[in-house]
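re: ur question from the group chat, yeah i did fold both. here u go
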Amino acid sequence: MNNNNYPNESYWLKLKKYAKKAGLKLVYVSLVLYNLLKDSTAPWIVKALVGFAITYFVIPFDLLPDFLLQLGFADDLGMMTLIFELIRPYVQQGHIVEAIKVTRELFGADVDLAPVQDMFVVEEPEQEEVVESIND
């Protein structure tokens, strides 16, 4: 696993240590958001919201402390999902592709991503919409 792609050491260490306990959905959501956080084209408000969600995940003592097994990560997943719904229009295909790659590194190449991939379908604009936006 290439740790150089993840400069936030606290995030990377927690993700690697608790990936299986946190579960596929939380790991995948956090990776999509983290990739958006690293995107230099994302607006500052989007980065602020994502940064809040990532920080909430990293801090061990939150609404439900993480040491409470599966239950401890439920609030983290709720926070990540809420933030994702707010910033969904800014998620790009590249964010998802990188999240899939790292999720497979953490859970194994044969992990079934079908339960989570539908969460992050990025709608590509229709060709006519692209042409219209260029002409405007």
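okk and heres the other one u asked abt
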Amino acid sequence: MNTHEPHPDQARPRGAEPGGVPPQETPPGESSLSGAGPEETHNPTKGWAKAPLTLILLLAFCVAAFFLAYALIVV
């Protein structure tokens, strides 16, 4: 039996280099897929709407008033 090491170029399959895959064998980046999906036509505004923000602030004020009243009654 002959047990010798194969030639270093033949030992690894193509692309299996120690530092990774050579640049010419890498897949395309994500930016090349920007047009792959459907066109988005509805772009809602950013930020909070007035009604939810008002309700949250009102709820926070009621909770704060409750604890303030409770603190004044207990003391």
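fwiw on the second one: The chain has a mean pLDDT of 75. Residues 49-75 form one domain. idk if thats what u expected
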